[in-house]
Design brief:
The protein has 279 residues and is an alpha/beta fold. Helices cover 24% and strands 29% of the residues.
């Protein structure tokens, strides 16, 4: 994704610096592997040795890999890359939201689920509790969940990342209005809003907002909604929670998972958490 390629956003770079080469002993038999996002981070990177790669052929049997994404193009690209690097992997793509894969988990036990893009940070505390409850009910004891976690870091680093000099994040944020106009027959003036991103230290999350720079009078026909905003009024469009190892452990406690392994990049900016489903 373009937002991952801007200089101030280091998620993908740090993800590649995390030592995952020792995770190959998690499974000693062919498994079902489900990637909940068809992003580049869900494709095993080339530098990982074949003997340590959980998606390589084991005993001549196939590994099933099911990739889920709202973008058919992203799915096709991911499937092509995986098939080229791992001919023993049987790839299936599902176009849709990641929740649509939950129903498949028990069919392929033992199962490893990949959710590497730190998307879980976009869930507030109530949504996070529902997410982990739904996942836990679908997985069986002994299954694993490999998760990307963005860690708490210097406030300046965070705010620069979400207010990047190239303006990529700002356009990403304003694109929500374009989508509303297109999908819900709206007439919101996109140019009337400026991008705002700030760190909420109490809740430990970044808030992205759109702030009206002039009076806004609009309608969203499909929602039967009229919008009236004055200069300075804001719409919160996204949150992105950041964690420490301790706060993340508290988040998944009592959900039916334990943190089996925890790996970070050298700067302790991002982590991969390997969760194991318990009885």
């Amino acid at each position: 994704m373009a937002i991952e390629r801007i200089m101030q956003y280091e998620c993908k770079v740090c993800g590649r610096k995390i030592d995952v080469t020792r995770t190959g002993d998690v499974y000693e038999e062919p498994v079902y592997c489900c990637g909940l996002e068809a992003t580049e981070t869900n494709v095993p990177p080339a530098p990982v040795a074949a003997a340590d790669n959980p998606l390589d052929e084991t005993g001549g049997a196939l590994v099933d890999y099911v990739s889920v994404d709202v973008s058919e193009a992203a799915l096709a690209a991911a499937a092509e890359r995986i098939a080229g690097r791992h001919p023993a992997v049987r790839v299936t793509g599902i176009v849709g939201r990641y929740e649509e894969a939950f129903r498949l988990f028990q069919r392929y036990a033992p199962c490893l689920v990949l959710f590497l893009g730190s998307t879980v940070g976009n869930l507030n505390h109530a949504e996070s509790a529902v997410f982990w409850d739904r996942v836990a009910r679908r997985l069986t004891p002994g299954d694993f969940f490999l998760l990307g976690v963005e860690l708490v870091k210097d406030t300046g680093v965070l705010e620069r990342a979400y207010n990047d000099a190239a303006g990529v994040t700002a356009e990403f944020n304003r694109n929500i209005l374009r989508h509303i106009n297109r999908a819900l027959d709206g007439d919101l003036d996109v140019a009337a809003f400026e991008h705002v991103a700030l760190w909420n230290a109490r809740r430990r999350w970044i808030e992205m907002r759109l702030r009206a720079t002039r009076p806004v009078r609009a309608r969203i026909a499909a929602a039967r909604l009229r919008v009236r905003l004055e200069p300075g009024d804001e719409i919160r469009t996204e949150i992105s929670c950041k964690y420490t190892r301790r706060s993340f452990g508290a988040r998944v406690r009592h959900t039916g998972f334990v943190v089996d392994r925890w790996r970070t990049d050298p700067g302790n900016l991002f982590a991969l958490a390997l969760l194991r489903r318990t009885a």
